[in-house]
Amino acid sequence: MKIAVVGLGIIGGSFCRAIKKYTDHYVIGINRTAQTAQTALKSGAIDEIGTCESLSKADIVILAMYPQADIDFVKVNGRFIKKGAIVTDASGIKRAICPELKNLAQKFGFIFVGSHPMAGKEKNGFEASDADLYKNANFIITPCGAKQKYVDILSSLARAIGFKTIKITTPEEHDRMIAFTSQLPHVLACSYVLSPCCPNHNGFSAGSYRDVSRVANINSKLWSELFLENKEPLVEELDILIGNITKIINAIKANDKETLTELLEKGHKVKEKLGE
């Protein structure tokens, strides 16, 4: 197939590199910054630097930009997309993007299948892209009404480039779970490193500090958009977290060792039961 990747940052760049490394598909790279596209071509991550008109050649189009940028791009350039081509996005939120892209698919005649690669790094940009970024990672698909054959094509591509688990779900369930598994840890990490103690952690920190603080190295513009687009599920998870922290704070303030032990043991048992 001919696959066009729009947006050659870490996610789009890694798609390009992985497709070139693990499949025989032809990769067209489309990027706002010409220098990045040239770098991708020279590195062998893409076969061709594309333009919007190049979308007419693509069997699959992967949108790897910010959520609203994905929508804006298709609104302007959807007329170039080949009829019957599969268009997917790599966005970390789905309720805010899937309905609009589904409507645009009906307008322009392509097939929209939402997706979300559950992988990344603390670094951004094409220079951080990696052909093995998706090795053994999870790939979430939100079909949004697309026929099974199109879901199967996208699933096969995902498996070919290294994804281990393919999860099929709805935009609503996706956003609810991502609020817990991805967005909440990023809020927690950023809040954690805002402590005045953080700059002096060297010599006092080990694995616990690294584990909790790792994802605070965040793309603030992107994650602000993701948080706001998924406001309701994220706020719900934050309220639960604050409630649990408050219980622990109150037990410590009251020197209530019995309650404190019960709360900590409850968390221990949940994690132990999950076995991961």
Kindly list the characteristics that best describe this protein:
276 residues, alpha/beta, Rossmann fold, 6-phosphogluconate dehydrogenase C-terminal fold, six-stranded parallel β-sheet, three-stranded mixed β-sheet
Descriptive report:
There is one protein chain. This protein has 276 residues and is an alpha/beta fold. It folds into two domains: 168 residues, NAD(P)-binding Rossmann-like Domain (Rossmann fold); 101 residues, 6-phosphogluconate dehydrogenase C-terminal like domain (6-phosphogluconate dehydrogenase C-terminal fold, Orthogonal Bundle), CATH 1.10.3660. Helix content is 50%, strand content 13%. The protein is built from ten helices and nine strands. The strands form two sheets. A six-stranded parallel β-sheet has the order 3-2-1-4-5-6. Strands 7-8-9 form a three-stranded mixed β-sheet, covered by helices on one side. α4 links the parallel β5 and β6. The longest helix is centred in the middle third of the chain and has 23 residues. The mean pLDDT is 96.
